Amino acid sequence: MEMIVVAPSAPGRIEDLRRRFFARPLQALLSLVSLATMVFLAWKLLNWAIFSAVFTTSGGPEACQAAAGACWSVIAARWRIILFGLYPFEEQWRSALACVAVVVMTVLSCIPAFWTGRRIALVWGVGTALYYVLMKGGMLGLAYVGEEAWGGLALTLFIFVTTCLIGFPLAICLALLRRSELPWISHTTGLIIDGVRSLPLISILFTFAVVLPFALPQWLAGDKLYRVIIGSALFFSAYQAEIVRGGMQGVPKGQEEAAMALGMSYWQRIGRILLPQAMRNALPATINQFVISFKETSLVVIVGFFEILASGNAAYGTGEWRFAYVEVYAFIAFIYFVFVFSLSRYGAFLERRMSVGER
After folding, report:
1. What top-level class would CATH report for the domain 73-354?
2. What is the pTM of this model?
3. Secondary structure, 3-state, 193-220
4. Where along the chain do its domains lie?
5. Distance (Å, rounded) from C-alpha 338 to C-alpha 295?
6. How do the pLDDT tens digits run along the chain, 359 residues long?
């Protein structure tokens, strides 16, 4: 006669909470105190940000100073400066459309239907060209606006997108050169990568923005914005190259040897065997590098650019709104949060889709 063994049922959610947070009297006391503290802080934050806040500009700065909550009136009054910076007021619709073009380009790049070389190149090429035409003008009946007048969110997105657009292919090239079988190539590339990674980004931006024009002829120096973008892309590529190289090292060596035995050329082995698997292995670190690069765009304020953080400083810099700096920084932090959280969630989606980490 067979004996039927019934596995004990998993504890319910309430039982699990009790076991984790209320198993002993001291643990229960600490849990209740922590819960009460979180509720208190949440209420204070909601009361400051919503219930006691001022949202309209009808009362002016005086109404905000008299209120007990946040002064969101400064956002309603100064949002154009925060989002568009020094861009001419009557042309700010172009800056807004440029931001939309970048966002649409990024969203299309995240759709699997566009994950082919030609389609992704078409999307990024058209999106970048549309952004540049809208921002700079001088054609199609649009008034010319120099790079020195670009600012706000549009400039932040432009620096981020062009940094990744230039830096990512450069990172792949550096990773391939570092794993070259010729020692003088691999060692020289490794020296370049390690040298760039050992420097802080601020020093690289300062060098490309201020020092480099003294060492180059005037016709080769170019505009300061593009020099800063090249410096930022070089810094991005040095870190991303090591990420890609780590992904390559995770691919079993026997696969490349089997491809060589089948008579596949070097570029066929790289494009069809090695890189697809390496990018899959390096996906979590790559998404993290994109997030870091987006946040590091705020460092260009050091070399005199009016990106979104500098625009926020100008928004409350006048005498009447000087007291509302917390609200301005909270609004800018929310913008950063939206973009960075979206990137991180998309990265998590890709990890689930590709089953990264599962074997």
Report:
1. mainly alpha
2. 0.83
3. HHHHHCCCHHHHHHHHHHHHHHHCCHHH
4. 73-354
5. 12
6. 455 554 444 457 787 777 777 778 888 888 889 999 999 999 999 988 888 888 877 777 777 777 778 888 888 888 888 888 888 889 999 999 999 998 899 888 888 788 777 888 888 888 888 998 999 888 888 899 988 888 888 889 889 989 988 999 999 999 999 988 888 999 999 999 999 999 999 999 999 988 888 887 777 777 888 899 999 999 999 999 999 999 888 888 888 888 888 888 888 888 888 888 888 888 888 888 999 999 988 888 888 788 888 888 888 876 688 888 888 999 999 999 998 898 888 888 887 877 655 54
